[in-house]
Amino acid sequence: MAEFCSECTPFEYPDIDLAAIALDLSPGRSESFICEGCNNRAVYKDEKGGLYLAKAEDGVIKLHPVIIEQLMK
Ligand SMILES: [Zn+2]
Description:
Shape: globular
Bound molecules: zinc ion
Low-confidence stretches: none
Oligomer: single chain
Order of helices and strands: HEEEEH
Mean pLDDT: 96
């Protein structure tokens, strides 16, 4: 079954809710997933509470800083 994250899902309720994952994460932890609709691969929260979206780009995982508001929609 294909799973889509909240950033790219065509449905009202995403399989992978990025904001919910981000809010649940403890500092220093990450949660990875496979989104079949885009290159999002994980949400990471650093020790200071900064959030990052890990994206697969050309076979490499890159961290992009995000704020929680960007993940809510
Ligand atoms: Zn996605």
